[in-house]
Structure formats: structure tokens, C-alpha cells
């Protein structure tokens, strides 16, 4: 492979979306039935537009998942199962970062530490190599990098600009300066520049402020972000400060970004714990944006904002309230695979 590499934006053509089926050996066990319904709806939505590759823990999990998906008339010709071990199902953070080269793909295999050692993650840290050994990624090269980085912590415009948060990267690597982290990310991810957000968080988020819960590129000149319009809410000041930061950012050409603030859902509390209901945690597929819906009045307004940000895409709502019980949402459980990566 030549040295020329590029980190594609999520809206570029895709081969498939990679997910892992929840089962009783994952953290979903207590509410497995609810979460399965979200996964079924997610696979149904993905396969309207492209393939879904579903990781399963063993033959029994595969047979069960196949039966559940088949029962709702999903196009099973667009579903591929692969048996691999995994600790949990947050593939945005344990899955591959795909760089496109002139002669093929290079998959970056960063260390996955369970968000800074919060959870057991040894099998998840080996997931990329396990999938590669199964032939999922064809003849793509892999590169193991001894550096903790999760896919949800970064977002690219596909044209050399990376968006990330200082809180997350500093939490993972407190010994590194911002300049040092900028240099490493730029080198590994083939970026010309890194835009850092110093503000923004969601209660109930244990990722240390992943950017995919806060702000995302919608085009090289557009950013969609989670806003809060309730001055009485505990997030108001921090998300307002983040909105001001984003408004001050400039494109690579020196122009302001087109901005698309997302509405704020009413607080969702479970057992006295505030859950992180972010509309910024959407998934882009071929021709559509799959949007997390929380059964809130703001769902429809969020769909309207995303329709403005992605005018060429269909907006599909996927019920994600069960997911936020485990502190993540739709984007967190998926990883897109660029066109040509999967045979």
C-alpha cells in the first residue's frame, strides 16, 4: 500500500454497518428483551439501505438472532453473521478505524481500555484482529497502535479536519499536552488539523465526553450539535459554552461553519439516575440518517433539524430509549465500514 491514506467521512459510500448482538453475557442481561427490540429495529433500518454484519458470541446466539430478525421480514440476504468473542456491544469504540489508501484499506487497531479502565474489555480489545482473521475485511492491512482511542471520541469531515474533545483525550492521556495529542492524531488519522472542544458533557455518559454525543460533521462546512434551551437544566451553561465554541470554529478555508443545533429532550431518569439522551448520536448509512428516538416530543424536531443538515438523506427514527440505560445510544453500538472494505 502507498503511504497516501485518507480517513473517509461517515457520509461517504459504505459496504456495511458492523454491530454485535446483545446476549445474557453482556451488560444488557437485566433488560435484554427491551434492548433486543432496538437491535431488531436497527438491523431492519440498516438493511433497507445496505448490509449489516452482526457479530455473535456463539452458534446459539446466532440462531436466536437469525430467528428474531427473520420473524420481522428483514431482508436476510443483507445480514451476515460472524462468530467472535466480545465483552459488550459498543463497536463504535472497539471496532476498526478505516483509512482508505490508493491500493486498499488500512484498519487502525487502537487499544480499547473500557473507557479508561472502567469496565473489563480484554476481548473487545482483540475484536478487530478476531474479525480480520475471519476474513471480514478481505485483504485490508491492520495496524495495531499502543494508544487508547475510541471511535466515538473522534469525528472527521473526510477532508482532513478532525473534531474531538479535550476532556476525553486528556482523561485517557493526562501526561500528554494538547500539541502532542494533536500531532499524534494528525499523524495516525491522516488529518491536516484537529479542532478541540473544551466544553460539553452529558450526565449519564461514562465515556468522558465523547464527541459523538455532542457534535458531528454533516459536511466539510457543517456541524450538527446537541443544544440545550432550558436554563433550569444542569447542562445549560456547559452546552451553551460548547455552542459558542463551535460558532467560533472555522473551516479549512477560514469561513464559519453552517450550524445545526439539535433540540433538547426532557430529562430521562432511571432509578434516580439521569440518562444521556443525545440526538447527536445518529448513524449515517447509504442514503439515510438513522436517528435515535427517545419517545420525547423533541424527537420530531430533531428529525427536522437532521433533514435540514442532510437534505439528500432520508431521516429514519430508531427507538433508542433502552440503549441509554447503559449510557450510550445508536452511533455508539455501530461502526460503518467504507465501500470496498467488505467483499
From TrEMBL:
Coiled coil: none annotated. InterPro entries: Peptidyl-Arg-deiminase_porph. It comes from Luteimonas gilva. It holds the Pfam family PAD_porph. Gene3D superfamilies: L-arginine/glycine Amidinotransferase, Chain A. The keyword Hydrolase applies. GO terms for biological process: putrescine biosynthetic process. One of its GO terms (molecular function) is protein-arginine deiminase activity. Keywords: Hydrolase. This is Agmatine deiminase family protein. Signal peptide: none annotated.
Amino acid at each position: 500500500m502507498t503511504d497516501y491514506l485518507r480517513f473517509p467521512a461517515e457520509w461517504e459510500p459504505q459496504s456495511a454497518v458492523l454491530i454485535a448482538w446483545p446476549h445474557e453475557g453482556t451488560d444488557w442481561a437485566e433488560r435484554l428483551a427491551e434492548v433486543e427490540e432496538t437491535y431488531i429495529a436497527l438491523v431492519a433500518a440498516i438493511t433497507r439501505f445496505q448490509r449489516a454484519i452482526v457479530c455473535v458470541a456463539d452458534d446459539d446466539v446466532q440462531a436466536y438472532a437469525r430467528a428474531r430478525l427473520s420473524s420481522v421480514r428483514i431482508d436476510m440476504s443483507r445480514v451476515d453473521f460472524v462468530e467472535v468473542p466480545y465483552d459488550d456491544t459498543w463497536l463504535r469504540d472497539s471496532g476498526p478505524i478505516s483509512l482508505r489508501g490508493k491500493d486498499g484499506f488500512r484498519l487502525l487497531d487502537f487499544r480499547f481500555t473500557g473507557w479508561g479502565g472502567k469496565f473489563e474489555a480484554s476481548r473487545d480489545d482483540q475484536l478487530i484482529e478476531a474479525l480480520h482473521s475471519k476474513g471480514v475485511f478481505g485483504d485490508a492491512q491492520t495496524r495495531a497502535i499502543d494508544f487508547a482511542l475510541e471511535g466515538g471520541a473522534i469525528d472527521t469531515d473526510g477532508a482532513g479536519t478532525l473534531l474531538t474533545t479535550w476532556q476525553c483525550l486528556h482523561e485517557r492521556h493526562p501526561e500528554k499536552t494538547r500539541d502532542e495529542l494533536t500531532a499524534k492524531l494528525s499523524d495516525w488519522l491522516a488529518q491536516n488539523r484537529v479542532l478541540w472542544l473544551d466544553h460539553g458533557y452529558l450526565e449519564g455518559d461514562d465515556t468522558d465526553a465523547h464527541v459523538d454525543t455532542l457534535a458531528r460533521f454533516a459536511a466539510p462546512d457543517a456541524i450538527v450539535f446537541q443544544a440545550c434551551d432550558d436554563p433550569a437544566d444542569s447542562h445549560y451553561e456547559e452546552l451553551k459554552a460548547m455552542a459558542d465554541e463551535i460558532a467560533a470554529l472555522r473551516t479549512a478555508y477560514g469561513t464559519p461553519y453552517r450550524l445545526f443545533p439539535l433540540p433538547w429532550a426532557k430529562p430521562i431518569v432511571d432509578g434516580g439516575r439521569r440518562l444521556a439522551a443525545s440526538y447527536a448520536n445518529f448513524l449515517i448509512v447509504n442514503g439515510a440518517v438513522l436517528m435515535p428516538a427517545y419517545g420525547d416530543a423533541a424527537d420530531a424536531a430533531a428529525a427536522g433539524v437532521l433533514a435540514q443538515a442532510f437534505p439528500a438523506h432520508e431521516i429514519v427514527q430508531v427507538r433508542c430509549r433502552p440503549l441509554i440505560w447503559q449510557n450510550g445510544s445508536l452511533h455508539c453500538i455501530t461502526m460503518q465500514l467504507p465501500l470496498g472494505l467488505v467483499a
